[in-house]
Design brief:
By secondary structure, the chain is of the alpha+beta class. It is built from eight helices and five strands, in the order αααβββαααβαβα. The longest helix is centred in the C-terminal third of the chain and has 22 residues.
């Protein structure tokens, strides 16, 4: 079944209580044999549409080492796969990546005190207020097998598509945080994906 995969966008549902609607919706999608189609560029939700537009503009700021939307699959649990926003690839292996998140300027301002903070200080803030983003990066680290990567927050100034399509993104409009591999979270991810891996193995082998 082509729907039998867990992607990085499924992490919140995966780690939710198994009796919650969110988790059960994931299970239904998993066995549906239907792959959901998302067109963020045409989304009526301002935040999603703007994020998709600004992702393209952000790519223009990166050097040639980074490739957009590279797909990776976990060697340990092949039910887990992820599409990385921007990955640094060497000899066909991902050696680093950037997970990009857009946030409105009021939220972006709250990151400023952590811009030059040490790891222990900023990581506690991210784990508390951006837990889903943190867990998503941990899932991606699990899929790639690398030890750390970047989580970058990009400031959203407006939801005007025409303005955003022409926007030149400046260095001070992005804040990068290095995220290290968290084996506690990854162990939980592996524990939760085991039933999904079993189902995939049973029905596809």
């Amino acid at each position: 079944m082509k729907s039998m995969y867990i992607g990085s966008g499924d992490v919140t549902a995966l780690l939710s209580g198994i009796h919650t609607k969110t988790h059960q919706d994931l299970l239904r999608r998993f066995v549906s044999d239907e792959i959901p189609f998302y067109n963020a560029d045409a989304s009526p939700i301002d935040a999603l549409r703007t994020g998709a537009i600004l992702e393209k503009r952000f790519y223009l700021t990166l050097d040639d080492r980074y490739l957009p939307q590279k797909r990776v699959e976990s060697k340990e649990y092949n039910v887990c796969r992820s599409s990385l926003d921007f990955s640094n690839v060497f000899n066909n292996n991902v050696v680093d990546f950037i997970e990009l998140k857009s946030c409105f300027f009021t939220d972006f301002l709250e990151f400023q005190p952590f811009k030059n903070a040490d790891y222990d200080t900023y990581i506690e803030y991210i784990k508390k207020y951006y837990k889903n983003n943190y867990n998503q990066v941990q899932f991606q680290l699990f899929c790639t097998g690398i030890e750390e990567s970047w989580l970058c927050f990009l400031e959203v100034k407006c939801y005007d598509d025409n303005v955003n399509k022409e926007r030149i993104i400046k260095e001070d409009e992005c804040i990068y945080f290095r995220i290290k591999r968290d084996e506690k979270v990854i162990s939980l991810i592996k524990e939760r994906v085991k039933p999904f891996q079993y189902l995939k193995d049973f029905y596809t082998k």
